[in-house]
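In response to reviewer comment 3 from the previous cycle, which asked for concrete evidence that the modeling workflow produces usable outputs, we include below a single protein chain processed end to end. The sequence was submitted unchanged, and the resulting structure tokens are shown without manual editing.
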Amino acid sequence: MKILFVLEQLRGGAERVTVLLASEFSKRIDDEIHICVLFRDEVEYDLPNNINVHYLEKNYTNKYIEMINEYFFLQKEIIILSPDVVVSLSTYRTDVILALANIKSKCVLIESERNDPRRYPNSYIKQVCRNWAYSQCDGVVFQTEDARKLFDKKIKSAVIANPVCVSDDMVGNEMKNRHIVCCARLEPQKNIPLLIEAFYDIVQDFPDLSLHIFGKGHLEKELQKKVRQLGIEEKVIFEGVVNNVISEIKDAFCYIMTSDYEGISNAMLEAVALGVPTIATDCPVGGARKVLENGKFGILVPVGDKDAIVTAVRRLLKNPEVSEEFRKRSAEIRSNYSVTKIANQWKRFITDCIYSRGGK
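The workflow returned the following structure tokens.
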């Protein structure tokens, strides 16, 4: 089967999922994998040599000309490659352009919703455009059942979680360090100010703790200013983007996700799989709830509730057996969300969409 994946770039959360799926498919002798990338970046995920990558080499400063350029690039690549299926885990913008570009070739098209569709994109017109794109697809993959319920039931769909690439030998030691960690884009959606405020309350009684924030974004300077105002700049470290974040967080005391809305956070899922005790907001569209299973694999707290976060951290500090239980259960997460299992779910859905079209 020839599969063409479409990505904006080769870095980021959804892109990470795509790379894992493409890499897994590339191991199978019956699959030929291609990836179209719209933006070339200095830092990109590594890919196996047998995956064919096609870059859009020229971009324009005018966004409308850029979108037209992307349209013709995707249309040309789809026609030339003639794949059995085109798969996109991209943003609504690329999904719309891809749906338009595919009209001429009419390849089997599968797109995927990776966020809370009520909050992203953030305008009615953009949501209408996204919904139109999904209506042109042979199938749409959702991360949670809550997300799927928000769309027309006539859309052929599947609920498939993110894969996690964590093996048993990556799991940290039982002796954890005193780091609280978070990996996130420094953008409003992630509500990092809430994390900093909660940490400020915690560190008053537990001064040996430190907070390590991995990621970059538009709010970085604003967040650093907030840390200075609270007088905890020596306790809060902005780590930026690192190549191997798993090695940086695997021995952490705990992981905290404070998002206001989210699909399934890759970073949170990796933390749980590593056995790092995890605290996450129970945010729409239910990704954290799905992964943590209401306390089995981590602690859920209400969205925006600083006191609940503080209480959860205190619980871990005072009850080390709770953390140990999460660590032991992490093997189940590594199994349930393994790349092989998730890729098999995708392959079944892809095959179903092709056969529904009357394909091979």
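The two ends are 9 Å apart (CA to CA). We consider this sufficient to address the reviewer's concern, and the full set will be provided in the supplementary archive.
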